[in-house]
Amino acid sequence: MSFDELCRLVDYWRLAADPDGAGQSDMDRRDRRRVNLDETFGGSWLGSMVLDPVSGTIVAGELERLADELFGTDWAEATERLGREPTVAELARTPDQRRADALVEMARRSGTVAPGGREPRPLFTLLLGSDAFGHLCQLASGRVLSPEALLPWICGADIERILFDGGPSRVIDVSHRRSFGGALRRLIEVRDRFCYHEYCDVPAHRCQVDHVVPWSAGGVTDQTNGRLACGYHNRLRHRRPPPPG
User: Fold this and answer.
1) Any residues with CB less than 8 A from the CB of 232 and at least 6 apart, and which?
2) Backbone phi, then psi, for 196, in 5-degree steps?
C-alpha cells in the first residue's frame, strides 16, 4: 500500500483501539487553532496559522479554487499577449503570488456579502447499506477524523445521504449521458474517493470522471463504467499531450 493508505489504516486502528482518546485528541487539536498576521516595519504583512483538519480543509479548498481561477485568467492573458500557448514560466504571476492574491480575493468577497446572506455550509455525507463504509469517517482529502471532530460543525452543515444496495459498488441505475455530472458524478466521487491508479492519491475533487470502456467504443455513462482519474493519468491513458510547462 502507499504511505497515505498506511497512515489512514493506522488512524483507523487508533480510532478502534482508543476511541475516547482519539476524540479528545481531535478536540484538543481544534482548541489549538490560531492565526497571526502582523505588519512589519516596512509595511508588509507576515503571518502564520494553525487550523484543525476541518477548518483547514475549508480554507485550503477555497484558496485552491480561487488560485485555479486566477491561473485560468493568467493563462488567457498570456495566450493573448504571446499569440500562442504559453509555458508556466511565461505567466504574469507565480503560484505563490496567485495564492496571495487568492487570499486577498477571499477577504474582498467576504466583505461584499450582504448581511444575512446565505453562507456556504460544510457538506457531510452519510453512507448507508455498505459494510465497506461502515466505519468510514474522513475528509474528502483522505484525512481520518474521529466523530467528535465533526461536532462543532454539525449544526451548520448540510447532510447528504447515499444508500448503497449492500455493497460499495452500486447506487443508481444506468445513465446514457455523454459525461458524468450531477448525482452520478457525486456517487463515483464518494465511492472511489481517489484516482484509480494504484500509486496515485489525488482526491476526488481534483479528479475527472473517466469512462473505463471509452464512450467512442460504446461504453455507457453509468457508475459501473465510471472511475476517478487525475488529469495526469487521464491524459496518460488516452495518450493526450500534457499542457506546456
Assistant:
1) 200, 242
2) -65, -25
Contact criterion met (CB below 8 Å) for 70 and 98? yes
CB neighbour list of residue 212: distance below 8 Å, 6 or more residues apart: 219, 225, 226, 227
Q: What is the CB neighbour count within 10 angstroms for residue 33?
A: 12
Top CATH class of 171-245 equals: mainly alpha
Which stretches of the chain drop beneath a pLDDT of 70? Answer: 114, 116-119, 128-136, 165-181, 238-245
DSSP 4: H
Give the residue from 33, 26, 36, 37 showing the smallest Cα distance to 55: 33
Question: Within 13 Å of residue 142, how many CA atoms lie on the same side as its CB?
Answer: 20
Fill in the DSSP letter of residue 240: P
Contacting residues for 145 by C-beta, under 8 A, at least 6 apart: 26, 53, 54, 137, 138, 139
Residues 236-241: contacts with CB under 8 Å, at least 24 apart: 237/210, 238/214
Domain coordinates of the chain in residue numbers? 1-31+121-168, 49-111, 171-245
Helix (H, G, I), strand (E, B) or coil at 203: strand
pLDDT at 240: 55
pLDDT in tens, 88-112: 999 999 999 999 999 999 999 888 7
